């Protein structure tokens, strides 16, 4: 007989996976088949639902909430289809426009969080590398090879992406400035002994990833006005048409950017409680550890991760091809600026900084 705990874990895991897939499909599907306002309404309803779900989970934590919310997303989708099947109330249009403005204003915050999280993960990798270096020459040799491979992959990735990423004089200039700045910051960090090759190679990979996304073909981005065939007339009799539609509805650059942003935020949320803003003692109790501001922020972020998912995804879907490119360049330069400040301002006498750096 199957263990009830294993059965319930499988059910709750399936429910969470179903929730993610529903959000991934329903948002671009609504944008492609109905209208921008319908998409914004569904995004707003999903965000409100995720806030309620996160709050309930915070006060009454249980996997049952994951199962109970599964039918909510199809219900909200049907609500949007029903609302926009006839004349729409002007108040709904106003609410969706306000939500669109909010998502637009949140753009810089999303970029800042992605850049800071990427830098934080790269620095954490440098810290962990220091521990491995103390274990002997085998680990030193392995890290040297891994770092060399990372540098080579980053360089190849940038060269491969150059023809499309630097399609205009301005883009090629930005790429040259970004690479020059990165090299200078790397040499300065090495000279000041405030960075290491692990951290530098991680940021090189981050730059290559953003340059690669800048080189995506404009046709790969979502264009609800012309890129997709009508779905409503085919949804019942033609399942193959539906299947093909869903594949084409999920814009690959947006999905890649979404997965990276959520993944890097998740990693950063796990790292934040280990650093803190003050010189915390290494032998604090669990209660003192949990009382840190970073630990509280992490708990809130993880509790409302579905809200973050919906807002980030909605913002990415609203951006057109040119906006995606400019946000990528801003992400690169913002991260380089923060890295330069961290290199120049950090003190050798700072205990926390010493723990984070590899001499």
TrEMBL record:
Pfam families the UniProt entry points to: ICE2 (PF08426)
Superkingdom of the source species: Eukaryota
Record's keyword annotation contains Transmembrane: yes
Gene Ontology cellular-component annotations: cortical endoplasmic reticulum; endoplasmic reticulum membrane; perinuclear endoplasmic reticulum
Gene Ontology process terms (BP): endoplasmic reticulum inheritance; septin ring assembly
Record flagged with keyword Transmembrane helix: yes
Sorted UniProt keywords: Membrane, Transmembrane, Transmembrane helix
Transmembrane segments: 38-60, 99-121, 141-159, 171-191, 242-263, 325-345
Annotated protein name in UniProt: Uncharacterized protein
Organism: Amanita muscaria (strain Koide BX008)
């Amino acid at each position: 007989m199957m263990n009830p705990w294993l059965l319930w874990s499988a059910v709750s895991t399936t429910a969470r996976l179903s929730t993610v897939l529903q959000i991934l499909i329903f948002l671009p599907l609504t944008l492609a088949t109905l209208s921008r306002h319908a998409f914004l309404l569904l995004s707003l309803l999903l965000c409100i639902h995720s806030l309620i779900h996160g709050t309930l989970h915070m006060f009454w934590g249980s996997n049952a909430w994951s199962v109970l919310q599964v039918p909510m997303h199809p219900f909200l989708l049907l609500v949007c289809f029903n609302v926009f099947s006839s004349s729409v109330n002007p108040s709904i249009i106003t609410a969706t426009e306000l939500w669109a403005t909010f998502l637009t204003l949140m753009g810089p915050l999303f970029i800042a969080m992605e850049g800071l999280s990427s830098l934080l993960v790269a620095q954490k990798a440098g810290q962990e590398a220091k521990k491995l270096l103390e274990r002997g020459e085998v680990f030193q040799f392995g890290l040297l090879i891994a770092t060399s491979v990372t540098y080579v992959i980053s360089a190849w990735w940038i060269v491969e992406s150059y023809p499309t990423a630097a399609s205009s004089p301005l883009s090629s200039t930005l790429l040259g400035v970004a690479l020059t700045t990165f090299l200078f910051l790397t040499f300065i960090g090495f000279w000041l002994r405030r960075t290491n090759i692990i951290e530098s190679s991680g940021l090189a990979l981050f730059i290559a990833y953003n340059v690669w996304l800048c080189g995506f073909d404009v046709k790969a981005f979502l264009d609800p006005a012309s890129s997709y065939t009508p779905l409503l007339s085919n949804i019942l009799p033609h399942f193959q048409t539906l299947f093909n539609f869903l594949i084409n509805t999920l814009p690959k650059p947006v999905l890649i950017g979404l997965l990276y942003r959520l993944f890097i935020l998740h990693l950063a949320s796990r790292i934040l409680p280990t650093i803190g803003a003050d010189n915390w003692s290494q032998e604090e109790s669990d209660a003192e550890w949990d009382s840190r501001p970073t630990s509280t922020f992490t708990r809130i972020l993880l509790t409302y991760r579905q809200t973050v998912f919906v807002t980030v995804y909605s913002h990415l879907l609203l951006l057109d091809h040119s906006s995606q490119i400019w946000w990528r360049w801003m992400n690169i330069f913002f991260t380089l600026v923060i890295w330069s400040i961290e290199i120049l301002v950090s003190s050798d006498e700072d205990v926390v900084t010493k723990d984070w750096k590899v001499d």
